[in-house]
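thread: overnight batch results

M.L. [08:02]
morning all. the overnight job finished for the chain we discussed friday. pasting input first so we're all looking at the same thing
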Amino acid sequence: MQPRIPSFSFDSPLMEAVFELERLRGDLALSDTDPELLRQIREVLQLVTSMTSARIEGNRTTVLDVVKEKAASGDGRYSESVQEVINLEQASQFIDAQLVVGQPMTQSFLREMHRIVVEGLRAEGDRTPGTYRRRAVAIAGAALDPPGPELVPALMTELVDFINEPRPSSHDLIATAIAHHRFLWIHPFTNGNGRVARLLTYASLVSQGFTNTMSVRAINPTAVFGADRERYYDALAAADSDDDRGLLDWCAYVLVGLKQDLSRMKSLGEAAFVLDEIIRPSVEALLQSALVSAPEAAALRETGARGIVRAGDLSDALPGSAATRSQAIRRLLERRLLEKMPDSPRAYRLCLTSGPLVVAVIRRLEELDFIPAIMRGAI
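M.L. [08:03]
and the structure it wrote out:
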């Protein structure tokens, strides 16, 4: 059986989801949130996305584990569970750096994604990173056995041709859902197939322009699959029959989930929402936990509002002499609450990648229902 788009009616719920996703994509361009703040939130969401994908596969590490190990590691060595998350972050960064809108997918690109995902791992690794499997495998809990290894190269050629074939733009998202299922049905690698399939879905959305409308990752397919792990696997299994009903149900599951996620992401383009509902409550949580002082909290709120600050911008929050203010900023830098701008060492931004704020922000995003259900309790 070759990958195909099943027949469906124009007035079906599937087509309704396609139209709504296209409308929401257009709305994302209407953003007044500070670009630097959006970029930082993107990094937080990237961590959540990577952790969600790893958690679907059974990784039980927490956000605090990842943040602490990143801060403490001086030689780039991490525990297996944290390394798996870091690999997934690096694979997503690879996609963002290499793919542009309209760029065709290639097998070498998929194999490189796999190499990045499993590199340096033992239990969740692969002895031949970036290479198609050369032996038969079984999928735990699945009734269907993947095709034999001798068929994998030809099946992957078919899949990549299907992904790249010209089609009406209204069918692009449906083809993306079909490709995710087909990839897992082929199971081209010995290990890491689920993680690569979710990255393939994200890569397809990048190619379709769903992530370049503003500087935050505009859509997160892994959030859909992490909302209910059992439902994800059940929907995949139903599509294994390759009949139209099973495939359409799978596509509806993916696209309706994407629509819900994109609706949430839209609010990140609203500066008032980001500041009032995410940044300020996160800083307040640190203040209430006595992790920062009142002047430090004021400095963090001011930095969040401006995106990038210099010492003089924090004179109201950190009163006193310039030397006193510099000392206060240095303490914030040492505790990874602020970080220097790479191209301007005397300019600062919030540190949302490796310090206390990332945990506070993710907890706040969890309260706002931005975090997939599978991540609840993983903070």
